[in-house]
Every structure is written in structure tokens, then in C-alpha cells.
Specification:
Elements (H helix, E strand, L loop, with lengths): L13 H22 L40 E5 L2 E5 L5 H12 L3 E2 L20 E6 L7 H13 L14 E7 L5 E4 L5 H4 L6 E8 L5 E2 L2 E3 L19 E3 L6 E5 L13 E3 L2 E3 L2 E9 L7
Antiparallel strand pairs: 1-2, 2-11, 3-4, 4-5, 5-14, 6-12, 7-11, 7-14, 8-13, 9-10, 9-12
């Protein structure tokens, strides 16, 4: 009969096992801290957008009529037919308010240039806004002069080409109240309809002086070559619409480079249905003041 020998190895109880595990865990933690404390820390790289510093550009020698500064005026091409450009934040809210304040005291019902055979009575209701003409020389704050210079840079047409309406380079400041509008029309004057012209409006710049709650858009009904078909009405407000926003500018050309009228430049002011619309218009001609 085989007798089992008693084992001399002591049995480990549960407390001893727990204590052993805890001991080795703590020892390992401190050992890793000692051995790896000098190891470099790897951080994730952040992707950065490259920013181009426009101030780094240096101006080059310029002509006698040139300028030292390099400037940029942001714009959006709204259309090529007609050529129409949109200039966001062209003027500040303060500049717009100054112009409105100047105009309020001298507003009168807006008038029309009559075509052959038209009368004041037959064109009644075509243009129902009120307005006034103010030149930069009349503005003691210098606001209109600054805006005029900026328009000249945006168009590359000198200030002297601004239209003279009995006063040098005047702006036409207009106010449209609820239900007031201007039916679609051309800013250029067709000699066959208006008679011989000593000079011609080649472009128009509209500076929106206020926001409009509803309505009051500038509309181009023949944008992108739409033709006048049966049932077309110059009173309708369909086509490319530009909503007035205070401080923004709209430039469009009435003539092609060859001097003929761009028929797609037909435009109007939609009726204001809520609020009030203020706009400053600068007409630009093909000749300098005093040359005709």
C-alpha cells in the first residue's frame, strides 16, 4: 500500500494572492515611470490652413496718375448678360445713414426723361419714388467724395465721367415707400427714341443705403438673353432679382464695348411691399464733363 507523502510547499491563501498582485502592479508602475521619464512625447500634428498675407505684396513704380497702395474690392459676377457685378459691404452703415440724412430734407417726386410722343400724363405711375440730387462738393462730411473715388476704382472709369445733372458729379438719392416702384427701363438713351445724344450713359452704380423688409429688388427681366415676347409687361417683376442690403453696391453696364446698347440691361425696381428702400445711383458716361 502506497502512502502519499505530505507536500512541504506552503499553501497561499486568498489574502496573500491579492497582496502579491497589488505589489507587482505598484512596482511595475514606478519602474515604468523611472525608465520612460526621459522618452520624448509624441503629440498629434494639427493641420493648419495656409493663410496668404496680402500685406506682404509690395507696390511697384507707378505713373504720375497712379497710386502707391495695393487695394482690392471684393465683388461677385451676377451676370454676363448684362454685365452686372455685386459689391458686398461697399459702404459702411454709418456712411449710408449720413447720405440718407442729407437727402431727406430735399426730396421731390422723381421725374422721367420722355421719349418721342410721351407726355407726363401718359407715363404717370411708371416711376413713383421720390429723390434728390447731391454732389460730392455739397457734402461737407466727405462721404460722397469717398464713395465716388471707390466707384472710380471699382469701374476704372475716372470720377469726371460721373453724370452732371445741373451740378457737378451728382448722385441721385432715391426713396421708395410701400407700393412705390420703377417699371423696367434702360439707363442709356436710344437716339431714335430720345433724339441725338451728346454723350451716353455707359454704366450705372447703385449703392443700397438701407435694408428692405420685403420687395424693392432691382430686377433684370431680360437677363441671359431672354427676349421680349408676347404678353411681356414692363411692369412685371420677374427675372434676375437683387435684394437691397445696406452698404452693398450693384454695377451694371448699359452699353457694349462697341458703344451699342445692351438690350439685356433692361432693369427696374420692384414695388416695396414692406419697409422702405433708399438707394444712391451714380450714372457713368462715356465722356468727361466739359468735353461735350
Amino acid at each position: 500500500m502506497r502512502i502519499k507523502a505530505k507536500s512541504s510547499r506552503p499553501k497561499l491563501g486568498l489574502p496573500m494572492v491579492v497582496f502579491s498582485c497589488l505589489f507587482f502592479f505598484i512596482a511595475g508602475f514606478f519602474a515604468s515611470a523611472i525608465f520612460f521619464q526621459d522618452a520624448p512625447t509624441v503629440k498629434p500634428r494639427l493641420r493648419l490652413l495656409e493663410v496668404v498675407n496680402e500685406e506682404g505684396h509690395k507696390s511697384i513704380p507707378h505713373g504720375e496718375s497712379g497710386e502707391d497702395a495695393i487695394g482690392s474690392i471684393p465683388f461677385q459676377v451676377l451676370s454676363w448678360k448684362p454685365r452686372a457685378l455685386y459689391f458686398p459691404n461697399f459702404a459702411t452703415a454709418e456712411e449710408c445713414q449720413i447720405i440718407v440724412k442729407m437727402a431727406k430734407a430735399s426730396l421731390k417726386p422723381s421725374s422721367l426723361a420722355l421719349r418721342k410722343g410721351e407726355t407726363i400724363e401718359s407715363t404717370k405711375g411708371t416711376r413713383t419714388s421720390s429723390g434728390t440730387f447731391i454732389s460730392a462738393s455739397e457734402d461737407k462730411t466727405g462721404t460722397l467724395g469717398y464713395i465716388e473715388e471707390k466707384i472710380a476704382r471699382a469701374t476704372m472709369i475716372p470720377r469726371a465721367h460721373g453724370e452732371d445733372m445741373t451740378m457737378l458729379q451728382a448722385f441721385n438719392i432715391l426713396r421708395y415707400e410701400v407700393d412705390q416702384k420703377y417699371d423696367s427701363h434702360y439707363d442709356a438713351f436710344n437716339p431714335s427714341e430720345y433724339g441725338p445724344q451728346s454723350s451716353q450713359r455707359i454704366a450705372s452704380f447703385l449703392l443700397y443705403l438701407s435694408n428692405v423688409e420685403e420687395g424693392g429688388e432691382t430686377v433684370f427681366p431680360l437677363e441671359n438673353g431672354v427676349s421680349i415676347g408676347r404678353g411681356f409687361s414692363f411692369k412685371q417683376c420677374t427675372g434676375l432679382k437683387v435684394k437691397p442690403r445696406q452698404g452693398d453696391g450693384l454695377l451694371f453696364y448699359s452699353l457694349f464695348p462697341n458703344g451699342t446698347i445692351d438690350l439685356s440691361s433692361l432693369h427696374g425696381s420692384c414695388p416695396v411691399t414692406k419697409g422702405e428702400k433708399w438707394v444712391a445711383t451714380k450714372w457713368i458716361r462715356d465722356q468727361r464733363e466739359g468735353e461735350n
